[in-house]
Amino acid sequence: MKIQCLIVDDEPPARELLTSYIEKMDDMEITGQCGNALEAFAFLQKNPVNILFLDIQMPRMNGLELIKSLQERPRIILTTAYREFAVEGFELDVLDYLVKPISFERFLKSISKFHQYNILKQPAAVENKEEAFEKAYMYFKANKELVKIFLKEIIYIESIKDYVKIITPGRSVITYQRIGYMEEKLPENKFVRIHKSYIISVDKIVSYNNEEVNVQSFSLPIGRNYKQQFLRVLNA
Q: From 15, 63, 70, 212, which residue has the greatest number of CB atoms within 10 Å?
């Protein structure tokens, strides 16, 4: 099945450019085009979409407002002439942020990200998942900037009320995010929640017992309510 794409932009030339790019891709097709966000909202209620190419500055409702209004979201690639919305866009978990004019090479990088995401989150060949995991990363807002962290570098994640602390070799990053969101977004074959306050990297487990797990040089508690889930992932 081909990747279903929706283009939302109030400028016809911008829609035409993305259309020309998508038509070059054998595994993609355009399921719809909308000239404003309200039209797109109605379209998304009735039609399955895999990738939403979304402009930000549009009349009546902008692209970021559309994202916030959607209960179920496709993967979203923002397409805009304005760089200043990047931080807010990534906070809304967009897949990528393309600044106009958009080159075909940059477009292809976004599609590559989409395929990497699908490999990590859906059943696939083990070798493909491992290759994608090596390249996979997420952006996190910390100290008024976006910090890029490769998933393979994460040792564990700790919940601190409405924040999480992400531990990697040589540094830790604190960002405004709930641990439940992190649990949902991280690939379940690579990360497991062991406690209400901790998610760990499965690959970095050194040893464990009934009460704690050693992840590299860190000893973390195993919560009673998470023990079965932890053992199930280890035995998968």
A: 63
Q: What are the tens digits of pLDDT across the range 99-114?
A: 999 999 899 888 878 8
What CATH topology corresponds to 3-121? Rossmann fold (3.40.50)
Pairing assessment for the beta strands 75-80 and 51-54 based on DSSP bridges = parallel
Domain residue limits, the chain: 3-121, 141-234
Please identify which residue in the block is written with the tokens 């570098």: 153
Q: Per residue, what are the HEC states of the chain? A: CCEEEEEECCCHHHHHHHHHHHCCCCCEEEEEEECCHHHHHHHHHHCCCCEEEECCCCCCCCHHHHHHHCCCCCEEEEEECCHHHHHHHHHCCCCEEEECCCCHHHHHHHHHHHHHHHHHHCCCCHHHHHHHHHHCEEEEEECCEEEEEEHHHCCEEEEECCEEEEEECCEEEEEECCHHHHHHHCCCCCEEEEECCEEEEHHHEEEECCCEEEECCEEEECCHHHHHHHHHHHCC
How is residue 118 written in tokens? Answer: 């699908």
pTM listed for this prediction: 0.59
Q: Give residue-wise pLDDT tens across range 128-140.
A: 667 778 878 777 8
Q: How far apart are CA 15 and CA 32, in angstroms?
A: 11
CATH H superfamily, domain 141-234 = LytTr DNA-binding domain (2.40.50.1020)
